[in-house]
Specification:
alpha+beta, Fructose-1,6-Bisphosphatase, Chain A, domain 1, D-Maltodextrin-Binding Protein, domain 2, 7 helices, 12 strands, binds D-MYO-inositol-4-phosphate, binds magnesium ion, Inositol_monoP_metal-BS, inositol monophosphate 1-phosphatase activity, EC 3.1.3.25, lithium
Length: 247
């Protein structure tokens, strides 16, 4: 099926995986709150409160999943007082379980993760995505940013087709930074902690502090690289995740 546009896909598997995760957690923690991509699509509210909250993307990379393009993840973040306390991203086809607990480091299948030590943007690979908007103005901004970043110049630009795996690539030191405008809180909640616990830096595309509900992110190995990327981004602001639905 489709959601916000003809290219914003969802399958029965997305919906069933989300229901399975929520039911399993509810059995143990009946008072906790949930923000799930497909529950929000079905009309549930998307407001992050101080309450213990599970932030779930049941399939990150649904378009990849539909096309058998082998990068698909399950992303689960857990927040208290609006701060992510642990994050789990399972990269299904790679069989890699990325985990992080605030203050306790980030791991892949139990092995510690550390971001790249590259400080020179011109020796870097940057990850980003085209996203699912096909609005001409948004696409113009996305391509303008992409052109600016490519022409720094950087060694390359890559995209796994899933924000969560892109962030795990930053945490693993495979790419120096990832940025995107248009993602949602469920795409980045778990990955944001995995990046920071691997020694990385998070910020908004305007250089300010990361706001999980803003639909904008820069995740990088260092502040130097993050701020250099910010200089090249033609920023815009999609409707926030917690913006009341316009009737
Ligand atoms: O819808 P899913 O859960 O597959 O999330 C992806 C978005 O659909 C993309 O637009 C966006 O560019 C990212 O790839 C994000 O991970
Ligand atoms: Mg997603
Ligand atoms: Mg999804």
């Amino acid at each position: 099926m489709t959601k916000s546009s003809s290219v914003d896909l969802v399958t029965q598997t997305d919906q069933k995986v989300e229901q399975l995760i929520i039911q399993s957690v509810k059995e143990k923690f009946p008072t906790h709150r949930f923000i799930g991509e497909e529950s929000v699509a079905a009309g549930e509210s998307c407001v992050l409160t101080d309450a213990p909250t599970w932030i779930i993307d049941p399939i990150d990379g649904t378009t990849n999943f539909v096309h058998a393009f082998p990068f698909v993840a399950v992303s689960i973040g857990f927040s208290v007082n609006k701060q992510v306390e642990f994050g789990v991203v399972f990269s299904c086809l790679e069989d890699k379980m990325f985990t992080a607990r605030r203050g306790k480091g980030a791991f892949c299948n139990g092995e510690p993760l550390q971001v790249s030590d590259q400080e020179d943007i011109k020796q870097s690979i940057i990850a980003t995505e085209f996203g699912s908007s096909r609005d001409p103005d948004a696409v113009d901004r996305i391509f303008s940013s992409l052109r600016n970043v490519l022409c720094i110049p950087v060694h390359g630009v890559r995209g796994a087709g899933t924000a969560a795996i892109n962030m795990c690539l930053v945490a693993s030191g495979c790419v120096e930074a990832y940025y995107e405008i248009g993602i949602h809180v469920w795409d980045i909640a778990a990955g944001s902690l995995i990046v920071s616990e691997a020694g990385g830096v998070l910020m908004d595309v305007d250089g300010g502090p990361l706001d999980l509900m803003s639909r904008r992110i820069v995740a990088a190995n260092s502040r130097t690289i993050a701020e250099r990327i910010v200089r090249e981004i033609d920023a815009f602001g999609p409707p926030r995740d917690d913006e009341p639905l316009r009737r």
